[in-house]
# Entry
Amino acid sequence: MTLKELAAELGVSTASVSNAFNRPDQLSPKLRERILSEAKRLGYRGPDAKARSLRTGRSRIIAVVLAESLTYSLNDAVASELLSGVAEVLDAHGHTLLLLSGRQDASQVPGSSSIADGYIVYGLMPSLMMLDELPQLGQRQLVAVDFDLEGYPAVHIDNEPASYAIASHALRTSARRPGVINLRLTKHPCNARISPDQELLPADRTITRSRLVGFHRAFAEHGIDPASVPMWNVEENTFEVCAPVIETILDLPDDERPDLLLCMSDRIALTVLTLAEQRGLRIPDDLRLTGFDGIAEGQYRSPRLTTVRQDSVEKGRIAARMILGLAPREDRQLPTELILGETCP
Amino acid sequence: MTLKELAAELGVSTASVSNAFNRPDQLSPKLRERILSEAKRLGYRGPDAKARSLRTGRSRIIAVVLAESLTYSLNDAVASELLSGVAEVLDAHGHTLLLLSGRQDASQVPGSSSIADGYIVYGLMPSLMMLDELPQLGQRQLVAVDFDLEGYPAVHIDNEPASYAIASHALRTSARRPGVINLRLTKHPCNARISPDQELLPADRTITRSRLVGFHRAFAEHGIDPASVPMWNVEENTFEVCAPVIETILDLPDDERPDLLLCMSDRIALTVLTLAEQRGLRIPDDLRLTGFDGIAEGQYRSPRLTTVRQDSVEKGRIAARMILGLAPREDRQLPTELILGETCP
DNA sequence: GGCCCTAACTAAATCGATACAGTACTGTCC
DNA sequence: GGACAGTACTGTATCGATTTAGTTAGGGCC
# Structure
């Protein structure tokens, strides 16, 4: 049963039926009442959302594009918090949430999935790596979270000061050989140690890169040549992808293995923790460890993770408000908090 | 730039442009190539999803309707696992995932959100309580998870045997005064102790109710009159909603307070645990406790929760396959596993 | 009574695609 | 050379609504 059929049944125009549902002031209460009750009786369940969205151009759907697979993201504390912040705002304003994975065919995102009224893109994803293709996105509504995209507003935290703070703290302890595990830092995929000639992403684009700048500042202040600090890169935050890289680090001979690992995420740090414990390494005596994010899991377990806490829920809320036009579409930077856990006291 | 404009620009029919994108076999490779490259050059980004979904009637979007708020569900381990199972299958078959909250205006779900090709409804929700209104749903694609809906396939676990098993185990310990905390069991909202004259939902409809049947069987076998066992009800799985009810239980005088609480979810059991510990009650000495679900958090902490583990990811996968027509649309029941933790050894 | 104004409603164009029925042309085969 | 098949493409109805411009009826006012 369509609006047209219902109109015919009632002997009124389609415009009146449409108005009965959308603009009560455009018709007499009496007719409106008749239309609504007949609709109910005949089982017409209101205007079809597909047709309406075509005609009006708006679907009241906002998409969140996630860097990792949906399956991973839904079980990741940080991504879940972001999503729940987004959902909170969308819900309160009558919008719904579409989940997309950035790991799908690059051409699909946010391209042909263009049912959504706007996109919140979380984290730099492989399909956006080719920064040249960006003009393709058109001026469609888009907000970037945790990375920068030229021409679009971004929401992130104060990465450089935060990473400087945690690295400074870590270096004040007796660590002599720091190492860094990065997340998607290199221009071309690399899941291993980063060699000196490898091209990195620009420092003003990715959070990982600006965190590294903070680390380097701390290194320099402690008399360590940043170029001498070994770095590894992982392409995904998952256990499967990280574990092999971490194992090559842990398998290094004692005098080459870093005695401090600065990790770009709690997830990575926790994986290091698990694998190090399996090998009988003592934390923090044999190996000091810092993370980034402040997820609950890192604070439950023993030893508690030394890390930087960020408010991912609030990031989600802000991104959602920007997309809905409830907040100015401009870059936002949120504060963080240093958590002194036991993995690097 | 629309398909029509592109066609005009190229001097071909709209049909050919459409075919270039959708049915390569319907036109010569040469023309197809020309269309695709011109499209790229002119910035046409492929057929508009809104229009396509109207015309074809399919959007490649599947909605999951969640009983609790999205904000809660996204941070709930059980719901997240279900979603990740759903996402896994949808992703593999080129569909996307729309999240809806059943707590929105009842008329909205799944009504006017009818952009989706199918609905996976998770848990009985307030808006579906009025079981009379169900015919409104039409014969739209729908799969129920963790509750039964007449006329639609449902995915759940072997609730009655599982709850019988855990209750039997618990009663073999020296518990003398069992009590039950239910989740959304009463026909009309009730967030308190259930009085004997209160109407319960039918046993073949909700998981909570069929679990209760299992409990009752165990009570009877242990010489306890099921009618004499005190029951409480909570309307939501959230801390905020559960805590007041749990506090009234814990505040009972020692000789009235149950020495065994069978909870309908791990979430509830963990809230009991937290509040009981705050009061200085010893678990399991002063109070024995069982949950239901087998979430990770219950197994990390000490004491470990005695519970029933279910595979929520698999439930999600199965529901998704049914919606996509990859699995027969018929009721499915998954097995569970009893976990003997320390809250009721 | 004539004029204007408003309220209540309608007719038809439109949103951007898809898909069916058809046309034009080329080539094959007896 | 004519019948027939196949390929490559086109014209247009259609999906189900929204919206603009326009029509009609009735009321108020001088």
Notes: The CA atoms of residues 164 and 217 of chain A lie 7 Å apart. The longest strand of chain A covers residues 61-66. Chain A has a mean pLDDT of 89.
